[in-house]
Design a protein that fits this description.
Layout (H helix, E strand, L loop, with lengths): L13 E3 L2 E6 L5 E6 L7 H9 L4 E3 L13
Parallel strand pairs: 1-4
Antiparallel strand pairs: 2-3
C-alpha cells in the first residue's frame, strides 16, 4: 500500500526532509534508511518545481545517521 506523506506548504519552493529509520542488525551493527516523500502535488506544478533546481532543496539526514551501513 502506498500513501502520500510529507506536505507542500508553498507552491514556489519544495523542501524535502527525510524520515529516518534505524535498525540493529544481527551482527550488532546499526543500519538505516532515509525515506523522502512528497504530499499530493498536481503533475504540472511538480514538473515546474523540478525543472528549476533552485526551487528544490533536499535536506540530508543528520551527520550521525549511517544509512545502510555505508560509513
Amino acid at each position: 500500500m502506498v500513501n502520500y506523506f510529507g506536505s507542500i506548504t508553498s507552491t514556489d519552493q519544495l523542501h524535502l526532509e527525510p524520515i529516518c529509520f534505524k535498525k540493529k542488525r544481527s551482527d550488532g551493527k546499526m543500519i538505516g534508511i532515509a525515506l523522502y516523500g512528497i504530499g499530493f502535488v498536481a503533475d504540472k506544478m511538480l514538473r515546474g518545481l523540478l525543472m528549476d533546481k533552485d526551487k528544490v532543496k533536499i535536506i540530508p539526514p543528520d551527520d550521525e545517521f549511517d544509512y545502510l551501513g555505508g560509513k
